[in-house]
Amino acid sequence: MTTTTSNNPTHSQLKRRDFLKLTWAALGGLAAVELGGLALAYMQPRPAEGEFGGVITAGKVDDFPANSVTQIPNGRFYVVRLADGGFMALYQRCTHLGCNVPWNQTAGAFICPCHSSQFDRQGDVQNPPAPRPLDLFAVTIADGMIQVNTGQPIQRQAFDPSQVVYP
Ligand code: FES
């Protein structure tokens, strides 16, 4: 009678090895996809300073009288200076379907030409169908200059005094 010893893996060991190989292959593939995405994001052209999508210098604090609305066309926003001297930067894009919303000085409101949404000076909705106020851009005041970061519109549900920036 002879006994045989075998180094051959059992069926269950083979299954486990296959599973581990597949797992490592999947993780490697996932890492490759993420690295590719990062590389693509890095290669995207970034907006230059002064262009929409970047930081735009809107002007000096003193260029904007209290209770004024000033369009900054290259930034696609309005600088709003409130009666108390605070500043806001409102994106000119309607929150309904994206039309450009002009300021109507006579009405004292932003009135959308597409479906007549109306927004007050702080960008709050006065008349739908716009579902929310005009979006904000972050305002920074440094050395008496108003700088607006147009890289990321800020959505909001209503005007809040914390959205106002003071010199
Ligand atoms: S896009 Fe402005 S109201 Fe429809």
Could you walk me through the main structural features you see in this protein, from its secondary elements to its overall organization?
The chain has 167 residues and is of the alpha+beta class. The chain has 2 domains: 12-44; 55-163, Rieske [2Fe-2S] iron-sulphur domain (Rieske Iron-sulfur Protein). It contains 1 helix and 10 strands. It has one helix spanning 11-43; strands at residues 55-60, 68-72, 77-81, 87-91, 103-104, 109-111, 118-119, 125-127, 136-142, 145-154. The chain has a 6-stranded antiparallel beta sheet, with no helix packed on it. A hairpin with a 6-residue loop joins strand 6 and strand 7. The longest helix has 33 residues, at 11-43. It starts with 10 loop residues before the first helix and ends in a 13-residue tail after the last strand.
